[in-house]
Amino acid sequence: MKKALVVDWLDKYGGAERVLTSLQNIFDFNESYSLVNVMKENDLQKIFKEKQPVHTTFLQIAGNYFRYFFFTFHYFISKIKISKDTTLIISSSHAVAKGIKKTSENQLHISYFQARNFKYIWDESDLYFGKMAFLVNPLLKVLRTIDYAQAQRPDVIISNSKFVQNWVKKVYNRESTVIYPPVNLENFTLCSEKDDYYVAVGRLVPYKRFDLIVETFNQLNKKLVIIGDGVQFHRLKSMAKSNIEFTGFLESKQVNAVISKAKAFIHIGLEDFGIAPIEAMACGTPVIAYKAGGIIETVKNGSTGMLFNEQTKEALTKAITDFETFDWNYQEIHQHAKQFSEENFKKNILDFVHLHLK
After folding, report:
1. I need a labelling partner for 167 at 20 to 30 A (CA). Which of 131, 147, 238, 294 fits?
2. Residues 155, 204 within the same domain
3. What sequence ranges are listed for the domain Glycosyl transferase family (predicted)?
């Protein structure tokens, strides 16, 4: 059986790309397709253990500036031609990969939604476009219509959380099945001896709201380590006082060394699922998080972490203050994270695929 993987784009290696690694390990795809591939070779090999070509589109010529052409993404995903002898197509979609066209009636297209798709034309246009949002609104309305139509193309949809499942039903009027993404728990080990610092991990992009974390810790003057890279790296670093350390991107084992010793993991963005908080809990590190999105499904308030209700500096400050009055059971937190293992993901997704291939 010939199998194809379709992704939105390949640039940096993060949580969504770890899911791609698991999918590749499970299905050993014969072909892979992407709008753009600008990923470093060593990161690409984390997904595809053996070198194999990733078929891209004309957008490849834009290089790292491809996001400026977001209004063409739907067009170019439709131009990708899957080999006709392919039986199974799995699209990993957080933007437009779901819109791939089948080239044969006998093909099964399963789309794994890594997030609310193309959320900067739906829910978060103000955050991404800022003061220019009113100028692009006419374009966004057109893109929403196209995006809705392309969301009808997959035969079946898998959502990575109940939060995303509800969004898919509301926005696309599609039913979907929830299969939580895999977390490589082998790289994250229990540590019961914590040091006096906090940690935050993720891509340094606007919607993750690292700016609020930096502003809060500037006021608290508590030690914070921020792990990750992204478009806001230099801006955030210039905002931060000396009590905040930026490491840039780190490999899993290096991340483990930092988060396993941290007092708590800080998470203030609205995530559709959120792999990094589970990695922290696998180390026995409790999570202090904004109570919204997929985090509600993964963090048990008062048991494996502390949830707060508003995405503000004041709410985060109070949560940290309250957190420091608790006596946390690191072993219990570690055990809770095990339900999100790669083994569970592999079993669930294989069962799902085999059911629909019959």
Report:
1. 131
2. no
3. 192-333
How far apart CA 159 and CA 179 sit, in angstroms, is 6
The confidence score (pLDDT) of residue 300 equals 95
Domain with 149, as residue range(s), is: 3-182+341-357
Cα separation, 281 vs 259, in Å, equals 9
Hey, what are 261's tokens? 């010793």
